[in-house]
Amino acid sequence: MRGLGRNHPDICQSVPHCVSDSSKNWRHNSMVRRNITLNQKPLSSTTSPKLARRHLLVAGGAGVGLILAKSVRAMPGAIVQTGVHGDQGYESAGSFEIVAEFYGPGPSGIVVTENGRIFVGFPRHAINHKGATLAELVNGHLVPWPRTALSMPSDTPPAERLMSIHGMTQDTRGLIWAIDDGKLAGQPLQPGAAKIVCFDPATNKLVRSIILKSPVLLPDSHMNDLRVDLTHGAEGTVYVTDSSFGHSPALVVVDVATGQQRRVLEKHLSTQAEAGFMAVVEGVPLKYDPTQKPRFVTGGVDGITLSPDSSRVFYAPLTSRRLYSLPTALLSDMSVSENALAAAVKDEGEKGVADGLATDAQGRIYTTNFEHDAIFRRNMDGSMDLMVHDPRVLSPDGIFCTQTHVYCTLGQWNRLAGFHDGKDERQPPYLLIRFPIQGPPVSSAELAGG
Description:
Distance between the termini: 32 Å
Number of strands: 28
Radius of gyration: 21 Å
C-alpha cells in the first residue's frame, strides 16, 4: 500500500459515481447497472504519451436514485501510445467496473463490508491535504468516518485523532482495522501519531487504538499495511509492514490484548528492497539505487495478506518480485528467536512487482502490479492468472476481496512530483475499481510440467 494525498478543502469530497456490492441495497433502491462510454475523444497525434495513458471514460451526472457502474472492456482496434518510447504493451484486457472517481485526495486503503458499505483511506504523508483521511462512500459522496472530529485535520493531539490512514483490512468478526502511519508531509513523526486503530462499523465507533512506540517505531518508519489474525493471542495479533521512508524496513508484530510490540526480520532478505532492482514504469526502465533519490515508488516490505485460516502470512517488499510467507504460529509468538523466524521464511517464488496483496475465500492471492497496469491472481498451486490489464490501472494500490468481487484503488503514485523533477503529473480522477472473483482470467502462466 503506497497511498498519497492531494489538497482538497471540502469536508465531503464529491464522488460522481459509486456502486454498492450489496444486491439487497441495489434492489431496495431500484438501482440500474448500465454500460457507459461517454465523453470519449479520439487521441490526437499531438497528445503527449503520458496524457494519452490518462484517456479515461468520464460519465455525466446520474439521475435521481440512480447509481451507475461503468463496465469497462478493451476497445476493438484502439491503440493507446504509452511511454516515452511508444511502448504498445498496454492494450486493455479483461473487464472491470469503475466504482468511484475521486477528484480530491488520492485513495489508498479500501474495505468493503458484507452489506456493501465502502470505506477508503486517504493518507497525508506525501501531501498534507485538508480532506478526510478516512471516509465512507455514501450516496456518491465521501463522508468523514467514523466522525468528522477524528478524520479531519485539527489541533487535537496526534494520539487522539487520525493523522494519515494507509493500509486497511477487516477481521473475521467484521471489525475494520487500519494503520495510521502518523506522518504529515513536511513534518517529523510526532509521538502518538503512528498507531493501529480498530472500528466497529455496526456502531460507527473507534473501539481500539494501539500507539506504536520505540524501539518498534523508528524515526523513518512508514507503517504501511496490516492484517489481523484472531487465531493467536487472547484478542488477536496484528502484523504490520514497515516499508520505511528510509532504509530500515521490517515486520512488526502486536499482541492486541497486551499491547506488546515486536520488530522482526529487519535485516532479512524477505523484508528488504533489492538494490539494483529494475522496474519498467510506463514504458521507461528505471533502476533502484539506495544511494540515490528514487525515480519511482520504492520500499521494503509492503504488501501483506493472510491465508483464509490465518495459519500463514504472506508478504512482499515493494522493490522486489518475490513473495514470502511465514507460519503465524511462529510469527505471533513473541518468544521465538530471530534465527528461528528467519529459518522459517519460505520463498514462494515470483509474483511480479506487487504493492497491495489480498486473499479470497479459496486462498488465491491477488497482487497489484504497477509495471503492467494490471492485477494478477496467484492460485493455490503457484500458477498465475492475469485478471485485469488496462492503461487506466495506474499504480494499483489498496486491494480488498469480498465474497464476490475484488476492489482496488488506483492512485497514480508513480506520477508524483518527487519522481518528476517537482512536477506533479497525476491527473484526477483517481479511481476505485472492481471485478468479479468468479470471472475468467484473461490468461494464465502455468507451472512447468503442469
